[in-house]
C-alpha cells in the first residue's frame, strides 16, 4: 500500500469511496530509482538526503511539476500497480466511469492545446541522450477507440454498480494495460470486467489521483506522497527486501 484517502464530492464533502494505491513489491525499486534520480539529477544516486526529500515532496504536491513527474514514471512502464476502490455508499458504474472519462478528456484536450502552441509538445519521449524521438498525440483514431473500450468496460447489461463495502480494482500492468475487476456478489473472488490496452487510458486515470492542481482525492494524493517519502530516504532496492 502506497497511500489511501477518501473521495468526496460537492461542497458538502459527501464521501463516495475510499481509494488506495498499491504497487507490486518487486517494482518498488524502479519507482525509487526514477524519483530519486529525478531530484538528485544523477544516474548514480540511490537515496535522497533530507533537503532533497523535502524538495521531492514539494514537487509531488505542485500542480504542474507533479504532472510531469508522474506522467514520466507511468509512461516509462515497468511498474505494476492497483487502484483499489471501496464505496462508502452504493455507487453505479456509470457515475464512476463518467468521472474518469471527464478527467481523461480534460487532460488530453489540455495537452493537445499545449502541443498546438508550444515549440516542444508535452509530453515527449526521449532517449537516454536526451534526443526527442516521438511526440504524443491525442487526436488519433486509436485513442478515441480506447476511450470507447474503457466506457464499455463499465457498461452493458447486468453491470449496474458496486455495492457499499464491496471492492472495485483497476489494475495497471508493466506495459500500461488496464484491467478492471469487481468483487463477486458473495464477497469472495473477483470478476474481470474487461481491459483496455492503450496505456494512455490507465496513465490518465492514475494521474487523476496523483497529479495536477485538482485530484480526485487530495487526502489520497498526500498519503501517497508520504508513502513515497518513506521509500526515497532508503537506498534503492532495500525497501523491497524489507517488505518481503
Please tell me about this protein's structure.
- The chain has 8 helices and 10 strands.
- By secondary structure, the chain is α+β, with helices and mostly antiparallel strands.
- It has a 6-stranded antiparallel β-sheet.
- The longest helix is centred in the middle third of the chain and has 25 residues.
- The relative contact order is 0.21.
- About 4% of the residues have low confidence.
Which tags fit this structure?
single chain, 244 residues, alpha+beta, two-stranded antiparallel ribbon, 10 strands, 44% helix, 22% strand, globular
Order of helices and strands: EEHHHEEHEEHEEEEHHH
By secondary-structure content and strand pairing, the structural class works out as alpha+beta
* Shape by Cα distribution: globular
Strand order of the largest sheet: 1-2-3-8-9-10
**First-to-last CA distance:** 13 Å
Largest sheet: 6 strands, antiparallel
Radius of gyration: 18 Å
DSSP strand tally: 10
Question: Hey, roughly how much beta strand do the residues contain?
Answer: 15-25%
Which regions have little confidence, pLDDT < 50, spanning 5+ residues?
125-133
How many alpha or pi helices? 8
Portion of residues within helices? 40-55%
Please, what is the average pLDDT?
86
Amino acid at each position: 500500500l502506497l497511500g489511501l484517502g477518501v473521495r468526496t464530492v460537492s461542497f458538502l464533502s459527501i464521501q463516495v469511496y475510499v481509494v488506495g494505491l498499491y504497487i507490486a513489491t518487486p517494482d518498488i525499486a524502479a519507482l525509487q530509482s526514477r524519483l530519486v534520480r529525478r531530484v538528485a539529477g544523477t544516474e548514480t544516486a540511490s537515496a535522497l538526503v533530507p533537503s532533497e526529500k523535502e524538495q521531492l515532496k514539494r514537487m509531488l504536491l505542485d500542480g504542474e511539476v507533479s504532472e510531469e513527474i508522474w506522467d514520466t514514471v507511468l509512461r516509462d512502464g515497468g511498474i505494476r500497480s492497483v487502484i483499489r476502490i471501496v464505496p462508502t455508499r452504493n455507487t453505479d458504474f456509470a457515475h464512476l466511469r463518467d468521472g474518469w472519462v471527464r478527467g481523461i478528456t480534460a487532460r488530453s484536450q489540455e495537452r493537445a492545446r499545449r502541443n498546438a502552441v508550444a515549440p516542444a509538445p508535452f509530453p515527449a519521449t526521449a532517449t537516454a541522450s536526451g534526443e526527442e524521438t516521438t511526440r504524443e498525440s491525442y487526436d488519433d483514431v486509436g485513442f478515441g477507440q480506447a476511450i470507447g473500450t474503457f466506457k464499455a468496460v463499465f457498461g452493458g447489461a447486468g453491470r449496474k454498480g458496486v455495492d457499499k463495502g464491496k471492492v472495485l480494482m483497476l489494475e495497471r500492468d508493466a506495459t500500461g494495460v488496464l484491467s478492471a475487476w469487481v468483487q463477486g456478489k458473495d464477497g469472495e473472488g473477483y470478476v474481470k470486467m474487461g481491459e483496455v490496452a492503450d496505456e494512455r487510458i490507465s496513465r490518465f486515470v492514475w494521474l487523476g489521483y496523483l497529479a495536477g492542481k485538482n485530484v480526485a482525492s487530495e487526502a489520497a494524493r498526500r498519503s501517497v506522497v508520504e508513502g513515497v517519502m518513506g521509500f526515497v530516504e532508503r537506498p534503492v532496492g532495500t525497501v523491497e527486501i524489507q517488505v518481503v
